[in-house]
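Example 3.2
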Amino acid sequence: KGNMEAAADKIRGGNERQYKKMRAVEASRNAEKADILAAGGNPYAVWRQQEQAKKADVAKREREEKMKDMENKLLHQLMEEEARRKDKEELEKEHKVLIKEFQAQMGGAAKQKATAQYMRERTVGGKEVLDPTGREARIYPSKATVLMDWKFGLGRKAYPEGAMPGQELPPGMPEGYDQNGDDGVEDEGWRATQKDRLITKMSRKFPHDSHNETLVGSKYLDDSMRRTAKNTKSQKQMEEEAAMVAMLDAHEATRHTASDDHDHEPANADNEGDEGQGLTERLPEATMARMNEVFAVPEFQGIWDGDAGADSRQASKYQGTLSALEQQYLKAAMDRKKAGYGWIEKQVVWGKEFKGTAFVASEKGKDIAAIEFKDFVPGHVYKRKITLTNASYSFNTFKVLELPDTVKDFFSISYSHPGALSPGMTCDMHIKFEPKLNQDILEQLPLLCQTGAQHIPLRCLTKKVTVSTTTPEVELSVIMGESITRHIVLVNKGCLDSTFRVFQLHAPPRQDHIEHDLAAAEFSGGHVPEDAREPTLVFDVEGVAVGYSTTRIAVTFTPTAPLAMEIPVHIVFEKGLSEPQSPDLFVMLRARAYEVPIYLEDSLMDLRCCCYGMAYTQTLVVRNRGKVALKALPL
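Structure, written as tokens:
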């Protein structure tokens, strides 16, 4: 209730202020009214102008404020766009810097620098390159790279002196263990090998003997055995190493002696046995046992092996002979291979067996039914590129078999063996044809596919004259006194041009003996003489049928009296142009002349069954085939 009273008071206060303002305006206008009337003006017009001026001022202020707001909004928008542009430029700049760094890192110099840094951090002494041609027979990663040794985890220094990552060796310090430490060996450093120590010790023990540097490389002199402590080798090991070095030196000396005496005196088997026995007696039993070990075993035995006979070739991969069932399966598989040239097999995909043309031939993107060499000339060379597409269900392949002996010397076929082609894949085949005789060749190109044999027709055709007509009958219907022209159309599907002559026959040939009767008419006077021809028919008596084109012979009929006739025409072509050659043609001209151009569409009006007392109607259609309007009246 209080809110309602407050709202009512507010409305009454507003109305009161409005009324007070209106009364003040009315009082002001009443005071001005007398002055305006005294001046000769219209007070209401003046007041209306004042109100319009106030409204115009208010509208103007509103427009100015609105324009300012729009300017401020546009300014903020421009500032935001400028900020976004700067951010985008910064991002593009960072991106360019990253791309430049990436390209620099991918270059050869950057890769080489990174590789050198990697080698310095991970090799002993910070070396960039490890020399494999040095004194050592091999380079072992455990000795060349920075790795923790056995002291790792025992509370001792895990890296040897001079082997910390990236640590440079102090001047005069050997590359390896501290020589004064428990793990050091006198006069050797980190890069010294077990082989070097063995050679040094053996040289001190046998100062008058020398070692062979070429043969010192067996597993007993290998440096892969890590040293444990100083002077920890057993007496047995030292004796074994000494015996091995002595054996190698003796063997090398024997080999040099034998090579020097080979040209002067043949070797004696007994002496060789004695030398070997003497060498064997000087070696310990453990060393002899290792010498008899076989370290190189062939993966399989060949037929050159004395112990491998004919039966070993039929052995299975498990070194066992084939069972009776395995031999039976093997024989059946070989028979199937022989029956199918070694590779023909059924192609079954998703339970459906493929039957049809495995490879579709195409030329220049269009499928072809046959490979054709048309209009060839003997002595010239013709080439075709044929594409074979695998149209079977699965992988397939092919090979081209030989053509018949009568034509194979004229063709040269080349292609890259495609191997297994998946469905839809293609293989190009280049065929070179060099004819020697002017004769047609109708053969087939044999292909042996994985799904069976396939033959592609191969047709080589000489230049020919092949003329036919599309108008064996020509209708000439005209009104007496008028003229009409029709054409006999000759189509030459061959390459050679042929001249022809047109004759009128006395009688048409028999339907089943057209060629025979036309030939007889040509040589036995069956043609109508030129002066005795039908005068109302005019046509060209000579012409040329151009190769691969259409020739038209115009026939004009101008009757002078009503008539209906049939004129047989014989078209004779030049003989001996090609073999084979199209025969002569026969055309029937049917001419009909009407007395008047008026005729009935239906000459018979049949009302059929009619009932008495009923009316029936039928239309009689009268036509005019002439060019002038005529009046027709029923008689």
